[in-house]
Design goal:
The protein is of the alpha+beta class and 379 residues long. Helix content is 38%, strand content 25%. The protein is globular, with a radius of gyration of 23 Å.
C-alpha cells in the first residue's frame, strides 16, 4: 500500500516536553532536529489563569485557526515558525528562541488600554488609531504581564539564550507586528469583520532571523463582525461572563468554530479580478512580479483577443487590469496608460490590492521583508 501524508504524520515520534503552558504544550522531535510540535489543549483561561475551563473540541478548533492563519501569512511573505499541520490538535514548527515579549497592535481602543488611560484624559471606547498602536508587555504571569516601553527594552535589553535583543530587534518586532496586523485586518475586512486588536509573539532562528512564533488563534485578538461589539466572536465574550455555565461554554465554542470557518477563506482571492496580458508582457511580468499570474485570464493573448476583452468588460463592474505590449493599442484605448513594464506591474498589483485582500497582503508582506532583509544585512 502506498504511504500517505496522513500515515507519515501519524508516525511522528515525540520527544521531551520543551515547555507547557495553560493552553498548549510543546514537544521536541527527535527525528526532526531543529523542529518542535505544538499541541493545543481543550482549555480556555482568562485573568492570567484566574478563570479556567475545559471545552471539549476547543483544541482542534484553535489548531485549525492557527494553521490557517500561519499558512496565509507564509503565503503573504511574512516569516513564521510554522512548517505544517500535523493532526487535528497540533502542528510542526521551527524550534526558535522565543522572546518573552507580547506585542500588541490596536486599531480601536478597548480593554486594558481604556483602563490605563482614564481621568483626566480618558480615551473613548473604540477610539480609532490611524496607524496601528503597538505596545509591548513583558511575559510574567505573576506580575500580570506588565507593560514596557520600547525605550526600556532598548536601555535594558533582554538576553535570550545568549542573544542580546538589541534596538534593531525591537524596531523590527514593532514593524512586523504592525505589518501582520494590517494583513490580517484586510483579510477580516473582506468578511465584514473588524479586527479590533491582537497580540503576537516572536522568536529567533539559529541564523538570527526574527519570525512570528507561538500560535495565532481566537484567544489572540478581538473581532467585531460588522464593526459591532455586541457581535464579538472572540475570547472577550468569555472574559466578560459574570458566571460560566455549560451553555456559556457551548456558546464560546460556537464562536471559536465560527472563526475557524471564516479564516479558511483568507487565502481565497476576490473572484471578480482578472488580468489579461499579451505574450511579451506576460513574460516580462514574470520577472517583475509573479503574483500577477494568479489573476491572469491568459498569459498568451493576441491583440485581437485583448480588444474583445476590453469590449466585454467595458460596461461591467468586474475589476479588470490589462498589461499589454502594443503601444498602438495603448494610444487607442483611453483606459490604458503607457509605462515601463516593471512599474506597470507594480501599478497593476496596487489596483488589484484595492479589491483583493490576498494581493494586498502579499504586497504588504513584501514591504516588510524588504525591511527585515535590510536589518539582517546591518546585523
Amino acid at each position: 500500500r502506498k504511504t500517505t501524508a496522513i500515515d507519515t504524520m501519524a508516525e511522528l515520534k515525540l520527544g521531551e516536553v520543551v515547555i507547557e503552558g495553560k493552553t498548549k504544550v510543546v514537544y521536541s522531535l527527535p527525528d526532526e532536529p531543529g523542529h518542535v510540535l505544538l499541541r493545543s489543549k481543550d482549555r480556555i483561561t482568562a485573568g492570567d489563569g484566574a478563570r479556567s475551563h475545559e471545552i471539549e473540541g476547543k483544541s482542534a478548533v484553535s489548531n485549525e485557526t492557527t494553521c490557517a492563519i500561519f499558512e496565509f501569512l507564509n503565503a503573504c511573505n511574512i516569516s513564521t515558525h510554522y512548517i505544517r499541520k500535523h493532526d487535528s490538535t497540533s502542528f510542526v514548527a521551527l524550534k526558535v528562541k522565543m522572546i518573552p515579549i507580547e506585542c500588541v497592535c490596536r486599531r480601536l481602543a478597548y480593554g486594558s488600554y481604556l483602563r490605563r488611560f482614564k481621568e483626566p484624559f480618558p480615551v473613548a471606547e473604540a477610539y480609532r488609531f490611524e496607524q496601528g498602536c503597538v505596545e509591548f508587555f513583558y511575559k510574567d504571569d505573576a506580575n500580570h504581564d506588565p507593560q514596557v516601553t520600547k525605550e526600556q527594552l532598548v536601555s535594558s535589553p533582554l538576553t535570550v539564550d545568549g542573544t542580546v535583543i538589541k534596538r534593531e530587534y525591537i524596531e523590527l518586532m514593532e514593524h512586523a507586528t504592525r505589518a501582520i496586523f494590517e494583513v490580517l485586518e484586510r483579510a477580516w475586512q473582506a468578511q465584514d469583520c473588524t479586527l479590533v486588536d491582537m497580540k503576537l509573539e516572536f522568536g529567533l532562528t539559529d541564523a538570527g532571523q526574527l519570525v512570528l512564533g507561538d500560535v495565532v488563534d481566537n484567544d489572540a485578538w478581538r473581532l467585531w463582525p460588522q464593526g459591532d461589539k455586541r457581535l464579538m466572536q472572540d475570547k472577550q465574550f468569555y472574559r466578560e461572563l459574570k458566571s460560566v455555565s455549560a451553555d456559556d461554554l457551548a456558546a464560546v465554542l460556537a464562536k471559536y468554530e465560527w472563526v475557524a470557518k471564516a479564516v479558511r477563506q483568507f487565502q481565497v482571492p476576490a473572484p471578480s479580478l482578472a488580468v489579461a496580458m499579451t505574450a511579451t508582457a506576460s513574460a516580462a511580468a514574470k520577472g517583475c512580479f509573479p503574483l500577477l499570474e494568479e489573476h491572469a485570464l491568459t498569459a498568451t493573448v493576441s491583440d485581437e483577443y485583448l480588444r474583445m476583452l476590453l469590449a466585454q468588460h467595458e460596461n461591467t463592474p468586474v475589476p479588470t487590469v490589462y498589461l499589454v505590449d502594443d503601444l498602438a493599442l495603448v494610444t487607442r484605448v483611453q483606459q490604458l496608460t503607457a509605462r515601463p513594464v516593471a512599474s506597470a506591474v507594480v501599478a497593476a498589483q496596487a489596483i488589484l490590492g484595492l479589491v483583493d485582500h490576498v494581493t494586498w497582503g502579499k504586497r504588504r508582506g513584501a514591504t516588510y521583508q524588504a525591511v527585515a532583509g535590510d536589518f539582517l544585512l546591518r546585523c
